[in-house]
Amino acid sequence: MNIQFAGKTAIVTGAAHGFGRAIALAFAQRGASVWACDLLADELEETRQLCADAGGQCQVSTVDVRNRDQLFAFVDKILAADGAVQILVNNAGGVLGQVGRPLEAISESDWDSIFQVNTRGAFYFAQAVAPSMKSQRYGRIINISSGAGIGVSLTGIQAYASAKAAQIGLSRQLAHELGEWNITVNNIAPGFVLSNPNSIKQFESYGEDGQRALVNRFALKRLGSAEDIANGVLFFASDYANWITGQVLPIDGGKL
Questions:
Q1: Alpha-carbon distance 123 to 116, whole Å?
Q2: What does pTM read for this prediction?
Q3: Contacts of 101 (CB under 8 A, 6+ apart)
Q4: Span 33-70, pLDDT tens digits
Q5: Closest Cα partner for 211 from 192, 189, 190?
Q6: Is there a contact between 84 and 56 (Cβ–Cβ < 8 Å)?
Q7: What is the spatial distance between Cα 31 and Cα 238, in angstroms, rounded to a whole number?
Q8: Is 138 a catalytic residue?
Q9: Strand ranges (DSSP E) for 63-109?
């Protein structure tokens, strides 16, 4: 399966490390004009350099996806440079340093901040690129959810599980709304992957026995990689997924 994206412009959010970096690099290696954003400027520059070293094209900007004005300004910059956007990958998200606590201990700001970065940002980015995609009658929107969005969060963070489930609901709704313009909207729900400092720290906290128990919950009996998630994104963004929309693809090693 030879998937290429020459002539396509792809936005990847949360691209400073982990899934986002792997996704940005995968598109750049396949000829896309990649625009990557994150709050972590130094790591984002590392992503840009990796894409350049691979012979790809990637431009980066620091953007807070919780800030609608910043987000729309970033998309306007892309449209001014490339003329259109064909692919949007909403990867920005996470737990924002929160840990599992009883629901009685969760403040309003704790709850709202996780929804802002995981769900509201995805909505605003879709809103920003929709006019361009509609005018072309073509678009691919891929939202990165989580196994927590279709099951139970290992972190025990109520807002994270809820926000990722809400993002899946948003994808289904947008798929229905945008389908007549040949715009597909799909979700990927990654399993446990050692893709960033938070996931590595979490895995280490389980100890040897806990790590073995976690891995044994996967049918494949091994952890996945950020590249496994990127491969799912490439598929949804490609013509091979031309008649697939409103779907959730778990990439989790066959979680049992």
A1: 10
A2: 0.95
A3: 156
A4: 999 999 999 999 999 999 999 999 999 999 999 999 99
A5: 192
A6: no
A7: 13
A8: no
A9: 87-90
- From 138, 160, 206, 240, active-site residue: 160
Q: Phi and psi dihedrals of 57, rounded to 5?
A: -115, 120
Paired tokens of 60:
């980066």
Q: How many CB atoms lie within 10 A of CB 41?
A: 11
Please classify residue 69 by burial: count the beta carbons closer than 10 Å to its beta carbon, then call 0-12 exposed, 13-18 middle and 19+ buried: exposed
How far the first Cα of the chain sits from its last, in Å, is 29
**Listed residue (155, 40, 25) closest to 92, CA to CA:** 40
Find the farthest-apart pair of alpha carbons in the chain and give their distance in angstroms, rounded.
54
Q: What is the Rg, in whole angstroms, of the alpha carbon atoms belonging to the chain?
A: 17
Q: Which tokens is 16 given?
A: 């400073």
**Crossing angle of helices 121-136/158-178, nearest 10°?**
10
